[in-house]
Amino acid sequence: MKTIIAACSQNLSVPAAALHTLLAAPWPSQRDIRSWLQLLSVLQWVLSFLLLGIVSLLLLIYLVFTSFWPISALYLAWIIFDWDTPEKGGRRLPCLRRWTVWRHFRDYFPVKLVKTHDLSPSHNYIIGSHPHGILCVGAFCNFITGSTGFGEMFPGIRPFLTTLAGNFRLPVFREYLMSGGLCPVTRRAIGYLLSKNGTGNAVAIVIGGAAESLSCRPGVTTLTLKNRKGFVRLALQHGAHLVPSFSFGENDLFRQVVFEDGSWMRSIQLRFQKMMGFAPCVFYGRGLTSIQSRGFLPYAKPITTVVGEPVTVPKIKDPSSEVVDMYHEIYVHSLLKLFNENKTKYGLSETDELHIL
């Protein structure tokens, strides 16, 4: 009997010891939990932009050959019916801008928005967003998520962000983009927002585009802007004021292998860009497990987006090339002024210059 009792006591002591060990183990602090949430919020964003469209397309194609084929058929019918919606202001959901995940996303870097001048709700605006970087983190966080207080800083202004029109042809991904306030970077879509959607609209355009992403690297600030004048012509045709903005720190989020002009790899990148609309960059960031590991997540570097003074633009239905050139020069001068006045405040030195190609 004593042997049985001793055996039972020994067996009971095993889980008790395990429980004691578990309770004695250090629990994650609030700081650790916040760091994990921030990392997960960035992970879901990167995966959404890189994989959501392609995975959704492949899944719908797969369902065609199964008993669930009506799902693919119904969604195809929906896309045909809804084909023009991205060109007509999209279908934004305010609740998505207030999503808690975006606050963790903002704090991961962190991202900050700085206002220098008021924007009147009685006008429409084209905001030039510079630089492009790899994934346009600053533009997305400030103009789409609302986590940095755009609505409070610019009351009465509805921000939109443009992206490649091809993204709106991908199933499910198109719904995700429109719900956040993204629209195609086409004359028709931008023109609709500037002329048929009332006033108080601010359309942010990452002017450098895919070509600029090829020159994205830490310590170098090069913009593709000298021959990009279409946004100025659009502003003149609709009487929308031009607003320069610059995201300091955008180019520090990834490390990119930059191929020299004239090299065969550079020519392949440029040819691919002309055919597909985006450039295949060779880059890396941090991994999921640690900062020292390599992966596809951006490094946690601060980004400060400064929104500058609006350039007043008259409404001219058919502006001449000379008028477009004049307002383009005024815009570039305003952007250079914005950069030089703020560069030392947000991580750059007095000798750093903005190179415009």
From TrEMBL:
Highest taxon of the lineage: Eukaryota
Spans traversing the lipid bilayer: 42-65
GO cellular component: endoplasmic reticulum membrane
EC number annotated for this UniProt entry: 2.3.1.-
UniProt-annotated location(s): Endoplasmic reticulum membrane
Gene Ontology molecular function: O-acyltransferase activity
Protein's recorded name: Acyltransferase
Source organism of this protein record: Probosciger aterrimus
Encoding gene per record: Dgat2_0
